[in-house]
Design brief:
219 residues, alpha/beta, Rossmann fold, Arc Repressor Mutant, subunit A, 2 domains, six-stranded parallel beta sheet, 11 helices, 54% helix
């Protein structure tokens, strides 16, 4: 696997140090820099082009939501993983809508944080079932009715629907593959076709779209 170049953005130097320590223990992850504000994060991304940005939400000058939106618009290939203490809907939904591919809490285990970096780098997402459930509730509360949204989506095959169902249960690609008795590559291919059909870019957006259309329930 190629080197994963990570930028850590947090206004607390102790948190930056701890996160750097956690992810640097993985031999395939290199922390290429740190930033303490959203504005500094944008400058570092422009200069260093990291693969993954670990982004806090509450910061001076420019918060993580604004910085995520700016980075996603200018450098869509850069993946953003929110790492924060905030788990309210007024933070989760805007952060994901701004372009974050994952959302993790700072009290997550070191192993979970490393996994989150790897998942967003690979084009997947890192979203806990609790955060996903909150997201679903809010996207369902707004916009057209689920039936209207469902009618506008290209239909999924039976196997794609099975993959979607397991994705909504919070399963990783490997876990989905094991449950359906197929290869992990096959699961990735099914997810890729769902993204193509629904014109979305990652697993988070698959879940958002499916939730809006009333196609999934979260356990």
């Amino acid at each position: 696997m190629p080197e994963i170049r990570v930028l850590i953005v947090d206004d607390d130097p102790l948190v930056r140090s701890a996160l750097s320590h956690f992810v640097s223990r993985d031999p395939e992850i290199t922390v290429i820099g740190q930033a303490e504000t959203g504005l500094e994060a944008i400058s570092r991304v422009e200069r260093d082009h990291p693969d993954v940005v670990m982004m806090d939400v509450q910061m001076p000058e420019m918060n993580g939501i604004e910085a995520t939106a700016a980075i996603s618009a200018r450098w869509p290939e850069v993946r953003i993983l929110a790492v924060t203490t905030l788990d309210g809907s007024d933070t989760v939904l805007p952060m994901l809508s701004a372009g974050a591919s994952g959302y993790m809490l700072k009290d997550s285990t070191a192993e979970s944080i490393v996994t989150g970096v790897r998942e967003v780098y690979s084009g997947a997402s890192s979203l806990s079932p609790r955060i996903a459930s909150m997201l679903v509730k809010h996207v369902r509360d707004a916009g057209p009715s689920p039936s209207e949204r469902a009618e506008s989506l290209e239909a999924l095959t039976e196997r794609e629907a099975e993959v979607l169902e397991r994705l909504a249960e919070g399963m990783s690609n490997a876990e989905i593959a094991q449950a359906l008795i197929v290869s992990e590559g096959t699961v990735k291919a099914h997810l890729g076709r769902i993204m193509s059909k629904w014109h979305v870019r990652d697993r988070v957006q698959i879940l958002v779209t499916a939730a809006q259309a009333g196609l999934v329930d979260f356990r």
